[in-house]
Design a protein that fits this description.
Layout lengths: L1 E13 L2 E3 L5 E5 H7 L6 E6 L5 E9 L6 E4 L11 E11 H6 L3 E3 L10
Parallel strand pairs: 1-8, 2-6, 3-5
Antiparallel strand pairs: 1-7, 3-6, 4-5, 4-7
Length: 116
């Protein structure tokens, strides 16, 4: 049996941009992607602390050390600039493996979105 578990989490980052006229996705600072073990094209869940919205999209790479968190396309309607969000990536694994698995959790500076 495979179960789905949290494998990656970027906890409490601030939305820096929302671009409705883009195809879709979330642009994330590459340093945050690396620290949280997320890859380009990976499906993620976005949880908006400000309005309670939960939705899925996929990751695209943003410039390193930029602090960029940009919701693109239709997802841009689910956030406002300055909203605080949580980004969660999930993975499938066997039940016994999941008991021992430790996710990559990142807690960046909420004001800059950078890792201190």
């Amino acid at each position: 049996m495979l179960i789905q578990v949290v494998k990656s989490k970027i906890h409490r980052v601030r939305v820096t941009q929302a671009d409705l006229n883009y195809i879709g996705s979330i642009t994330i600072d590459e340093d945050l992607m690396n620290a949280s073990n997320l890859i380009e094209g990976e499906k993620v869940q976005i949880v908006n602390i400000n309005n309670g919205e939960r939705f899925e999209t996929y990751v695209i790479k943003g410039a390193r050390k930029s602090g960029t968190i940009c919701l693109n396309g239709p997802a841009a309607r689910r956030v406002a600039m300055g909203d605080v969000i949580i980004i969660i990536g999930y993975g499938y694994m066997g039940f016994e493996e999941a008991k021992l698995f430790k996710p990559s959790l990142v807690f960046p500076n909420e004001e800059t979105n950078l890792i201190d």
